[in-house]
Each structure stands twice: as structure tokens, then as C-alpha cells.
């Protein structure tokens, strides 16, 4: 799972740091977000937003090699072959806009999941995504690439007709809070269930660990020059220092309890009614 965000690093010179981190989802949640288990894939430090093509070029080239050929790592005198698969890219909306190369994160076709259009509300002066105009048809990659032309056509007055879906929470929120609540951040909740189906359970995934990691990363740089180089130097040094081996706790929960188990004695008759 990837993560990217920006954070001011030198306020006087308005320099920001853009790190790209990754965590390994196969590591159990209790150890996954330890500092030593988070990977720093790239850093950009500048007064302006990075050019994502330049920023990602090297990272993507390495990832493509790892996806196609994998890598071999020696652990306890045994060689293991690892291949890399990308599960997701966790970012806030401004960073999503930067990395997906859209002008705004709340544009007319901001949703990367469905085709629901946004409408600029002149009263509230925000872009809203009215529930009754939802179009829950999923977008394809080709459509996403074509979206700028569609948006231009829409700006010229072409109508986009929506299809209604029923998701009570988002639908009724307008009745309670008024139409100004229908921001993109509310609309995106409509896709939460599909995203959980797509990515599996997300209850143990966290963005907070990465937020903390940015502060830790910033601590590796001093003064106002060559900040990304300083950070990458100390990150490399930290990565070659031998880590102590971590041991996993024995889980206390049980995935399965057989009906014959003595701990189900008093519930057994009742449970049998459900079988
Ligand atoms: Zn959507």
C-alpha cells in the first residue's frame, strides 16, 4: 500500500517535503506500521508541487521490475523470492489530484470510481455532487483518460443524466444538513462498501502511521539546503543497520470454534436451531 502527502519543512523559504511511503500488507497489523517496516520510496523537496512524471519515473521503473521479476532476499540463511503487487495508493484529495494529474480534486468529474457529475453551486460557492444526480456506472481507465474532453463538452452546455441509487445515509444527509453537505467527501462514502469488497477488510489499515512517519522523516534534515539528499542519506544509513529480529505475539482470538466445544455447552441447543 502506497502513501503520499506534502508537509511544510522550512516555513521561512516555503519549502515542502513530498514523501512517498509504502507499507507491506503481508506484515501483520500489529507490526506493519512500525517505523522500521515502512519503506521510503521517494522524496521531493521544493517550493512548488513536484512534477509527478519526473517524481514517479524512477520509482515506477523500479516497481515494474519488482512486479515482473521480483527480488530475492536472504533471511536466516534461506533465500526467499518476493514479488510485488500494488494494492492501493492512500492519499488525501489534494494529493490525489496531483498524482492523477487533475486540476482540482473537486472538479466536474472528480470521482474516479463512478460517473456522478459535480455541479457548481453559486449560492454556497462550492462544487456539489447532488445525490439525485448520481450516476453509479463505474468508470473505466479509457473513460478516465477521456474525461477532460467530456468535461469541456459539459462546460459548453451538454446535459449529463444521472441514475438514482439508494444508500440511505448519503441520501438522507441532504434532508438533515441541507444541500451544502453534498461535497465530494460525502459522495466518496457511497463507494466505501465497494472499496472494502475490492481491497478486502480495511479496518487494520491506517493513514496516521504515515502522518507520523513524515515528522520522523523531516527530523533527518537540517538547515535549508539539499533537504531531500540529507534525508535520503540518513534513510539509507538507517536501512543498512542490522535490525533486531521481531517476534509476533500469539493471537488470543479464535477464528473457529467447533460446535462440540465444551465452551459452547450452554448455547449448543440454541445454536442448532440456526443450522
Ligand atoms: Zn462516485
Automatic annotation (TrEMBL):
This is Uncharacterized protein. It comes from Rotaria magnacalcarata.
Amino acid at each position: 500500500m502506497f502513501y503520499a502527502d506534502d508537509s511544510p519543512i522550512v516555513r521561512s523559504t516555503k519549502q515542502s517535503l513530498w514523501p512517498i511511503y509504502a507499507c507491506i500488507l503481508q506484515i501483520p497489523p500489529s507490526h506493519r506500521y512500525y517505523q522500521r517496516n515502512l519503506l521510503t520510496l521517494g522524496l521531493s523537496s521544493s517550493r512548488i508541487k513536484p512534477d509527478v512524471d519526473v517524481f514517479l519515473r524512477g520509482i515506477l521503473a523500479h516497481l515494474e521490475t519488482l512486479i515482473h521479476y521480483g527480488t530475492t532476499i536472504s533471511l536466516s540463511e534461506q533465500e526467499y523470492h518476493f514479488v510485488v503487487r500494488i494494492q492501493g495508493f492512500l492519499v488525501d484529495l489534494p494529493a490525489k489530484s496531483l498524482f492523477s494529474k487533475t486540476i482540482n480534486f473537486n472538479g466536474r468529474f472528480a470521482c474516479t470510481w463512478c460517473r456522478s457529475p459535480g455541479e457548481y453551486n453559486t449560492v454556497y460557492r462550492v462544487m456539489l455532487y447532488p445525490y439525485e444526480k448520481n450516476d453509479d456506472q463505474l468508470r473505466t481507465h479509457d473513460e478516465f483518460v477521456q474525461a477532460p474532453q467530456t468535461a469541456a463538452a459539459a462546460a459548453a452546455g451538454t446535459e449529463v443524466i444521472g441514475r438514482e441509487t439508494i444508500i440511505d445515509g448519503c441520501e438522507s444527509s441532504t434532508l438533515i444538513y441541507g444541500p451544502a453537505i453534498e461535497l465530494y467527501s460525502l459522495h466518496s462514502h457511497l463507494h466505501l462498501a465497494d472499496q472494502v469488497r475490492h481491497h478486502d477488510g480495511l479496518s487494520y489499515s491506517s493513514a496516521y502511521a504515515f502522518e507520523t512517519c513524515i515528522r520522523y522523516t523531516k527530523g533527518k534534515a537540517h538547515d535549508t539546503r539539499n533537504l531531500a539528499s540529507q534525508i535520503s542519506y540518513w534513510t539509507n544509513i538507517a536501512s543498512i543497520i542490522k535490525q533486531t529480529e521481531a517476534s509476533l505475539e500469539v493471537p488470543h482470538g479464535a477464528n473457529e470454534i467447533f460446535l462440540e466445544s465444551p465452551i459452547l455447552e450452554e448455547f449448543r441447543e440454541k445454536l442448532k436451531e440456526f443450522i
